[in-house]
Amino acid sequence: MAGEEGYISIREEFLSNTEQTLRTMTFAEQANDTAALKRAAHMLQGGSGSLGATQLALLCREFQTRLAAGALRNERLDIMARMAAEFAVVHRALLELS
């Protein structure tokens, strides 16, 4: 039982943190705060990679790379939309595991 409870705790923390991080990225984009965007994408990449959400982690890395290269707002918004869509897939998959 402890293993299942631990998984549920980790899952819920990841889902909650990811939702918050995606909101933070939206606010940072609206404020054109590239430093906050970079921090949030890096944090999301780490959490996603640790949980095995590799496609989401790859999108985060792509976002960081493009951000560092001076990506235009439309490019950033496109990747952020793809990140949100991939998170929806991961969210469903994690809930189906329980």
Largest sheet: none
Assign the structural class, choosing from mainly alpha, mainly beta, alpha/beta, alpha+beta, or little secondary structure: mainly alpha
Strand content bin:
under 5%
Helix content: over 70%
Characterize the overall form.
Answer: elongated
Order of helices and strands: HHHH
Q: Uncertain runs with pLDDT below 50, 5 residues or more?
A: none
Mean pLDDT rating: 94
Number of helices: 4
Number of strands: 0
Radius of gyration: 14 Å
What's the topology here?
Elements: H1 2-30, H2 34-51, H3 54-68, H4 73-96
Keywords:
98 residues; single chain; mainly alpha
Short description:
The protein is mainly α and 98 residues long.
Walk me through what this model shows.
This protein is mainly alpha-helical. It has four helices and no strands. It has helices at 2-30, 34-51, 54-68, 73-96. It is elongated. The protein starts with a helix and ends with a helix.
